[in-house]
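Escalated from tier 1: iron/sulfur cluster holo job.
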Amino acid sequence: MPVHMADSQRDTVGPYNRMSASQANAYKACPRLWFYQKVYRFKMPQIPVLFVGRAVEEAVCRVLRDSPGFVAANSSHDALGPSPYHENGEPCTGQEQSWPAVGLMPFFPNERPQSKDELQTWATQRAGVHLPPALKRMQEQWEKDERKAGDWSDVDPKRCLDMVVSAIDFHLDEVERCFKGKGGPGLDAWRQGQREAWPAPDGFPHEPFTAGHPLAGEGEVSWTEAWEISRPWFVDPDAPSFTMNAIHPDHWFQGEYDLVYRWAGTPVIVDLKASVGANDRSGDYVDQLNIYAMLWHVTHQRAEEVSGLQIWYLGHPSIKTIDVPSLKEMEAIEREMKELWDLLKAEPPSRDDCPPEPKPMRGFDPGGKATEAPDESRCERCDWHDVCPGGAGTDERRLSSSVQLPGASQQTPLQDIGVLNPRATVRGELFSVGYVKNGVPLKMMLKQGTNTAHIQVVSTSQSDGSPTVAVQAMKGVKVLVKDAVFTINWKGEIVLKMDPFSQLVADEDPSIDSFDLFDYQAKHNVGGTVVYTYEKSGVGKTGKAWSRKGLMLMDHSGACKVEGWADDWNHQYTMLEAGDVVAIGNLGLDAWASEVRCDYTRNSRLQIIERVERSAA
Ligand code: SF4
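Tier 2 regenerated the structure:
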């Protein structure tokens, strides 16, 4: 099966700590690059082309999901509604929910495409129907992204459609092979209604058809049957995000295939690339497919191997075929991936464990054809050039432990970002229990001596799935708020936020240390190098527009986001550029899981201490 879910009883790794092909490639390209993006969580600029690739892939999948036996060429994009899945990605059964293709009236055989050309006309029209809503969804996502960069008006819908049509044309060649191969070895089983254990998404439930496939014919295979039989598996665009993974039996690796053809009896894995394939990354794609061959093998009891690996470059319509690795090579790939997991994931490595040592660039012509390497270093175009020692930055401390801010009578001491800790465990008594949703109180008041604090439950489950509120919450109950995030609300009151790393339990173990609410340090000062600035805005539930601004800040010990309402930032914010050295005083702290964030309020202060050389533009 292309999807292998985690075994929750045995999974000690968890969904956020698995290795993936893209992480392995990022680390191999440059260990420091991996560190910045995965440990410090730097986010690269989100240019439209990244979103266009997802829209093209979605449109391809939606055309593949349609059937020329049920859906007319000019039907609306939602003619075949979304398929029902459980939250964890498991498909609902036909009994649990109705599936969109069940009950659709098949066209009469003479109303269906009678040739490859007719099938192509139908599929091309479907591509034109599915692409615009996919592009619109992606444009909305891009617009909401705090790291959005570039200009959406540069997106050429005609070029996007050409890429979708190229993918469909490659698929039609596969349909033709299936047609000429008389439907392949599975024709009779398919006609009888048998289904793969995890079939290609087609709007039908995963169970077999008891009365045969509704589009089954007799005698020679028809073009519509060939379309149905050869349909590859792909991630159903309506399945919950990130659930269609193949997870290594020992849970330390996961990958998500694009297309898997199975009609000929052995699987062929295809990776879709909405690009020309003429840059360094084309080398990564080859590694990625080799890794996927290993993943397929190990997730099939090491008894099955893929028979083909292909990269479809849709920006320069061409198929690059990759040699399938041998068993021995797959063993070596698996060993290498496990070693990387041990190195990078078992325990997070330190910055010094991830040196700024980039691999030389590789050269590729359109279609991913290897050519001479370009005469440039990886650092020249790296997004982190301005702050990394491989570029114009440094690992060293840029500011001393205290700075003299203009107008201040004394030096302002700075804290190391790496040791900022917004969490503490607090012992107390529940004083009141407020808003309850689905049986879980989301707001409570804690009393500790004469001090009080609000408890705000922002996540009802911990990262391992267990509840964050693990006590009968009633007035007078003695509790421990474990690893709560200390924040201050606009009235200056302490709010203990409970996220997936926190838990409210009965206070039964007096040996556990408790933090004194009175000792809470509300304000912090930090300083370092600006990695980038970002902005986000939207409209709240009440219809009121909101706008927030922030920056990613790095010092010699760590990195964190500093974020606040747009109006609260002083005028120096508008002058910031990546590489500037700043001090920021009077910040609150906040956190979500392992990410620590500083809160900039109207009482905070940003001061540029040293500026990078400005570009002449
Ligand atoms: S600037 Fe160079 S060394 Fe630094 S992260 Fe980028 S590629 Fe790696």
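The chain has four domains: 1-34+245-395, 45-242, 402-416+522-610, 421-519.
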